[in-house]
């Protein structure tokens, strides 16, 4: 029903408006007392074999919702009923910011992909923290943190520390996002010197807390092998929990969508099926280079049980979906979980 009825309706709308429409409908529906139980019956699948412990946290299943879908922590309780094992909110910044000019989210239907240049649009970390304070479900939540667009890189650490402090009481793990292609200069923080300094400072702050949270680093799929070697070295030296591989790509190679349409869309990060192989390659390389010394959360192009199994075989301990969730619908997490149990 989703692909034949709901998806065509949504795809007749502007992509960003469609996202807002879905969010509004879900909030409306979940005000009706029996809807939660119906959604759980339809879309949630639980099995003891799915439970996995990563970085000291026990996830009821390994399929999570990637950052970007629920930027402002509005949908955490709802996503729990759709069968997700965890939800990553954000990316959040210290101050609210509108993001880049619209339109900034585009569908590449022949490729089952998206291009976005959202630019960390969010209502600020304090809004997200306030919402998480009153969440009702027990689903594990990650806090994906970034810097404001107008914060120079030399002061970026202040933004990450601010977000860490505001979210500490309300999230189960943190993600340091330095890999979005849509904030000018942000990816420069992936370079060895700035990255080591940033992660060392975050870890020092984390270690001073009564119950330190696992900290993950989200990386781009466009890094060279030398840069990935540096990433592995820095993760081991700073003793952060692990890596999320990967963010969106700036590559436009091997797309089915017409080149003229791609050129008209312009800049932005590409997600979905076209990034699947690159993401898997990064996961496999990091796993082998590190000899499995730390966990990897695999994200990029997962839209099926087979895709999920490929990521796990490459070395991922957990999975995240976003674009596949949009194209495949609300049953994706449960279908993957069922498939993993059968394997």
Task: Walk me through the topology.
Blueprint lengths: L1 H10 L3 H15 L5 H9 L8 E3 L2 E3 L3 E3 L10 H6 L4 E7 L12 E4 L4 E4 L8 H9 L6 E6 L10 H12 L5 E5 L14 H16 L7 E5 L5 H14 L3 E4 L13 H7 L3 E4 L3 H15 L5 E4 L5 H10 L3 E4 L1 H6 L3 H11 L1
Parallel strand pairs: 3-4, 3-13, 4-7, 7-8, 8-9, 9-10, 10-12, 12-13
Antiparallel strand pairs: 1-2, 5-6, 6-11
Helix pairs in contact: 6-7, 7-8, 8-10, 10-11, 11-13
Gist?
This protein is α/β, with parallel strands linked by helices and 343 residues long.
Can you walk me through this structure?
The chain has 343 residues and is of the alpha/beta class. The protein has one domain: TIM Barrel (Alpha-Beta Barrel), CATH 3.20.20.70. It has 13 helices and 13 strands. Strands 3-4-7-8-9-10-12-13 form an 8-stranded parallel beta barrel, surrounded by 5 helices. It has a 3-stranded antiparallel beta sheet with strand order 5-6-11. A two-stranded antiparallel sheet has the order 1-2. Helix 6 runs parallel beside helix 7. The model has no long low-confidence stretch (mean pLDDT 97).
């Amino acid at each position: 029903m989703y692909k034949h009825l709901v998806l065509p309706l949504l795809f007749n709308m502007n992509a960003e408006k469609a996202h807002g429409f879905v969010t509004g409908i879900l909030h409306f529906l979940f005000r009706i007392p029996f809807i939660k139980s119906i959604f759980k019956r339809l879309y949630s699948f639980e099995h003891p074999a799915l439970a996995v412990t990563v970085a000291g946290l026990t996830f009821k299943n390994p399929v999570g919702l990637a950052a970007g879908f629920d930027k402002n922590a509005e949908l955490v309780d709802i996503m729990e009923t759709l069968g997700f094992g965890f939800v990553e909110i954000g990316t959040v910044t210290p101050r609210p910011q509108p993001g880049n000019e619209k339109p900034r989210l585009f569908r590449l239907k022949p490729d089952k992909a998206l291009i976005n240049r959202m630019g960390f649009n969010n209502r600020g970390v304090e809004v997200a923290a306030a919402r998480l304070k009153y969440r009702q479900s027990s689903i594990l939540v990650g806090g994906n943190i970034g810097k404001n667009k107008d914060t120079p890189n030399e002061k970026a650490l202040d933004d990450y520390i601010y977000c860490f402090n505001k979210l500490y009481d309300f999230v189960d793990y943190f993600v340091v996002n330095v890999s979005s292609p849509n904030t000018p200069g942000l990816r420069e923080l992936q370079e060895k010197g700035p990255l080591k300094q940033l992660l060392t400072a975050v870890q020092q702050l984390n270690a001073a807390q009564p119950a330190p949270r696992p900290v993950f680093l989200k990386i781009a799929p466009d890094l060279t092998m030398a840069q990935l070697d540096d990433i592995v070295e820095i993760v081991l030296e700073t003793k952060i929990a692990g890596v999320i591989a990967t963010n969106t790509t700036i590559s436009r190679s091997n797309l089915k969508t017409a080149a003229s349409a791609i050129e008209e869309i312009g800049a932005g990060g590409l997600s979905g099926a076209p990034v699947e192989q690159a993401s898997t390659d990064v996961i496999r390389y990091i796993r082998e280079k590190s000899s499995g010394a730390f966990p990897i959360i695999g994200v990029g192009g997962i839209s099926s049980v087979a895709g999920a199994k490929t990521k796990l075989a490459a070395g991922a301990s957990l999975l995240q979906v976003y674009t596949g969730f949009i194209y495949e619908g609300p049953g994706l997490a449960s279908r993957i979980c069922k498939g993993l149990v059968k394997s």
